[in-house]
């Protein structure tokens, strides 16, 4: 108790010192600055050595006062530091459930920026201020278009979520591609106290398309100009961020800066840290007009309500029209127009300390924004070089960025305690389903996996494909994990048509895959391959969920349901398209079977024709798939008949049949209860049969399974008795569900199983 009292007395003494020492000092300095009742300037620029009133003694006195003033300022700086330490140690600092949070805004050591801030009335204040209420929602707007920008947004959002303590509302101005990707991502991410709204960027193109723009961001780089018109009319303030931003602090600290706006200040911006707007980068360099060094628009605080009252829309349009008459186009997109408006109306801007936008482009003054790691707030990769930018501390910044890039996003699904969150129907349904499971059931983990929501990032790489106009196009569908990545190039060489792949990866593995793909000429030359990342969660490989994800995101009328370990014969894509027409797949419920073979050799001279394959089969180089361990899986294909067949032939379903088939895109999904190894394809083929699909074997098609090390799941199946017991239980429950759903016709599956 005595220690606490002493601590409080020290804290009080430090507080009084900070308050009274500067006051007494300035009274002293102020009094000493008058001579005969008139003020004497302390500035060397204003001293008048030729005035008769100027004496050597007054000069010495003035210099003495200046020295004393600097000493007092240094003492105050030390005291402020001690005060902040005392606050951090005080008991009140550790109490939970405060109704409000507070933040301290400190300078960065950039004296020039600080002086500029003082002149503009924008200097950071030392004392604590009420900043953001505990459960106040922070609104963030981001413009995002395309596949690459969608990946960048995820890293930005991770850095925000990692530090945040408040509910967040993201306003995403997105094109159709980004909306599809990010809507699925956030829906499957299920982060509490995060709300997402989308605004159609394509509808806004007409608002800014009249402005020529040389910047690599294109037309989307101008859309921040129309946010006052785009965002809801009742939204008063918003933080606007570029996609190449990384947060190193709680975004609530930035939101709190809105409280410092005064008068007509409606834009919070950081000074540009390059020499671009000074116009001296090269001969005849002529940038858009700007106030001093200009401002960077990677981080913007917008007071939307005031901007609307000021007729912001009219203000920026008139400015842009006037400047374009001489400039002809923008070089830095919206940033040029924002700066031109501020040049004419400097009262609009509140200058943020530069640590709120540390700009990592070549030859910037960003190093003046920080002296220590703790000074960093926001990092902006605003160079086209991104992570390859030149900077004294770029390795540190790169590692910080990579931390969030590879950070497990599942760990960010944490609740905000004490803040009531809106009811989420999906979350409530999930909790209801999980609560109905018996946790004492030995197969609980298997059953739980069926309801697990896996975070999903669609189209992780650029995808561009327009299906053939004759409605015969076929997409190869498969799933894989990191240990099968080496198969991708070979499959792309064998199959020239579109491919839809679901990859089961961790966040770190997703980045490894990205680097692998970007380093592959084969993969980078193919824009018709859709890579969909399903992030790891739980102990099982969700094979059927992965298949469903890949199936759901195809753009062709037909799909070839394959596995990643198989190489299709050369020319199979065109052969299947012809078979689709020949067998009238559009108007009949058929499943076209591609016979499966296998080799035990890692190096194989791939057969270029059926005749060559039959020769290798006779020589023992190839075998019918799984003939030695699981004959029933493909026996109904009737390989003996296939050897001499020249026309398609029909086969009947049998127990445990699991061929690889071509079907219409509207075929039933795979059953998610089957995870890891066992019965995942068998159950799907059974359901196709129950829905009266006709199984037809293609006489001139084939695929070959390539050898690989056993998967972790098949090892568990072979070594774990409980795994096999649970699989048998799930199989029986599936058959019972089939009987309930399809009635009398489904009884044959129970009979066939008993006879097998």
From TrEMBL:
Residues 59-69 have a biased composition (Basic and acidic residues). The chain crosses the membrane at residues 12-31. It is found in: Golgi apparatus membrane. It catalyses: 3-O-{beta-D-GlcA-(1->[3)-alpha-D-Xyl-(1->3)-beta-D-GlcA-(1->](n)-4)-beta-D-Xyl-(1->4)-Rib-ol-P-Rib-ol-P-3-beta-D-GalNAc-(1->3)-beta-D-GlcNAc-(1->4)-O-6-P-alpha-D-Man}-L-Thr-[protein] + UDP-alpha-D-xylose = 3-O-{(1->[3)-alpha-D-Xyl-(1->3)-beta-D-GlcA-(1->](n+1)-4)-beta-D-Xyl-(1->4)-Rib-ol-P-Rib-ol-P-3-beta-D-GalNAc-(1->3)-beta-D-GlcNAc-(1->4)-O-6-P-alpha-D-Man}-L-Thr-[protein] + UDP + H(+); 3-O-[beta-D-GlcA-(1->3)-beta-D-Xyl-(1->4)-Rib-ol-P-Rib-ol-P-3-beta-D-GalNAc-(1->3)-beta-D-GlcNAc-(1->4)-(O-6-P-alpha-D-Man)]-Thr-[protein] + UDP-alpha-D-xylose = 3-O-[alpha-D-Xyl-(1->3)-beta-D-GlcA-(1->4)-beta-D-Xyl-(1->4)-Rib-ol-P-Rib-ol-P-3-beta-D-GalNAc-(1->3)-beta-D-GlcNAc-(1->4)-(O-6-P-alpha-D-Man)]-Thr-[protein] + UDP + H(+); 3-O-{(1->[3)-alpha-D-Xyl-(1->3)-beta-D-GlcA-(1->](n)-4)-beta-D-Xyl-(1->4)-Rib-ol-P-Rib-ol-P-3-beta-D-GalNAc-(1->3)-beta-D-GlcNAc-(1->4)-O-6-P-alpha-D-Man}-L-Thr-[protein] + UDP-alpha-D-glucuronate = 3-O-{beta-D-GlcA-(1->[3)-alpha-D-Xyl-(1->3)-beta-D-GlcA-(1->](n)-4)-beta-D-Xyl-(1->4)-Rib-ol-P-Rib-ol-P-3-beta-D-GalNAc-(1->3)-beta-D-GlcNAc-(1->4)-O-6-P-alpha-D-Man}-L-Thr-[protein] + UDP + H(+). One of its GO terms (biological process) is protein O-linked glycosylation via mannose. Residues 42-69, 81-109 are annotated as: Disordered. Residues 44-58 have a biased composition (Polar residues). GO terms for molecular function: glucuronosyltransferase activity; xylosyltransferase activity. Its main location: Golgi. Pathway: Protein modification; protein glycosylation. Pfam families: Glyco_transf_49 (PF13896), Glyco_transf_8 (PF01501). One of its GO terms (cellular component) is Golgi membrane. Keywords: Glycoprotein, Glycosyltransferase, Golgi apparatus, Membrane, Multifunctional enzyme, Signal-anchor, Transferase, Transmembrane, Transmembrane helix. It is a single-pass type II membrane protein. SUPFAM superfamilies: Nucleotide-diphospho-sugar transferases. In the C-terminal section; belongs to the glycosyltransferase 49 family. In the N-terminal section; belongs to the glycosyltransferase 8 family. This is LARG1 glucuronyltransferase. It comes from Pedionomus torquatus.
